[in-house]
Amino acid sequence: DGGITQSPKYLFRKEGQNVTLSCEQNLNHDAMYWYRQDPGQGLRLIYYSQIVNDFQKGDIAEGYSVSREKKESFPLTVTSAQKNPTAFYLCASSISTGRWTGELFFGEGSRLTVL
Amino acid sequence: AQKITQTQPGMFVQEKEAVTLDCTYDTSDQSYGLFWYKQPSSGEMIFLIYQGSYDEQNATEGRYSLNFQKARKSANLVISASQLGDSAMYFCAMREGSGGSNYKLTFGKGTLLTVNP
């Protein structure tokens, strides 16, 4: 079945450590996204990528980095520079051609806790 | 200014009754799209319904309908015949522009719906 796979589902990290969240999709979608969700804040866009080897900062990119070396993969690294990394992270993808509405397809999320 | 405003942090409804979740938006674009997503406690985001700015009729999907009032810039979600499984967080979102580089969705802060038996 086609979908988006995020791993790990739960992750604990000590302060000062970098951590990478994986996101893989087999929907053949061009665009991929990372959102962060905090209680009472809704979803906020971290980074997005429309094509391979290209990505743009979202509203809260500071302290995060991404890469898009393959169409299927869009990993997110939470660096030690991110001051409040504890959050729920959602990866999403969308088509970008044809009858496109902008609908996002989401993974199940990764919950990061900094100890 | 917030682009998507959901003024109801929490809502309660009796099973089998209808409920309206409010959403107002702010954009200067003529072409845009509005979405509603459901997020159960498991965390997954489930797409419910979409309304394009040029769509003349309100969108409907089963028990979900979108009450689109363009002049008032509102896109309220109506859930008819509520079920216990409808208890979840609901997010309104907007895509500005009509494609090309406009791939982003902006989300509201959500409304937590609780369906009582």
Question: Would you give an account of this structure?
Answer:
The complex is a heterodimer of chains A (115) and B (117). With 115 residues, chain A is an all-beta fold. Chain A has no helices and 11 strands. In chain A, strands 2, 4, 5, 6, 9, 10 and 11 form a 7-stranded mixed beta sheet that branches. A 4-stranded antiparallel beta sheet of chain A has the order 1-3-8-7, with no helix packed on it. In chain A, a hairpin with a 3-residue loop joins strand 4 (31-38) and strand 5. The relative contact order of chain A is 0.33. Chain B has strands at residues 4-5, 10-14, 19-21, 24-25, 32-39, 46-52, 60-61, 64-69, 74-79, 88-96, 105-107, 111-116. At the A-B interface, strand 4, strand 5, strand 9 and strand 10 of A face strand 6, strand 10 and strand 11 of B.
Largest interface: A-B, 28 and 25 residues
Pick out the low-confidence regions of chain B.
none
The run of helices and strands of chain B is: EEEEEEEEEEEE
Helix content of chain A: under 10%
Oligomer: heterodimer
Shape, principal axes of CA atoms of chain A: globular
The average pLDDT of chain A is: 92
Q: Which descriptors apply to this entry?
A:
heterodimer, A: 115 residues, mainly beta, seven-stranded mixed beta sheet, 0% helix, 50% strand, globular, B: 117 residues, six-stranded mixed beta sheet
Q: What does the secondary structure layout of this molecule look like, with pairings?
A:
The complex is a heterodimer of chains A (115) and B (117).
Chain A: E1 4-7, E2 10-13, E3 19-25, E4 31-38, E5 42-51, E6 54-57, E7 64-66, E8 76-78, E9 87-94, E10 105-106, E11 110-114
Parallel strand pairs in A: 2-11
Antiparallel strand pairs in A: 1-3, 3-8, 4-5, 4-9, 5-6, 7-8, 9-10, 9-11
Chain B: E1 4-5, E2 10-14, E3 19-21, E4 24-25, E5 32-39, E6 46-52, E7 60-61, E8 64-69, E9 74-79, E10 88-96, E11 105-107, E12 111-116
Parallel strand pairs in B: 2-12
Antiparallel strand pairs in B: 1-4, 3-9, 5-6, 5-10, 7-8, 8-9, 10-11, 10-12
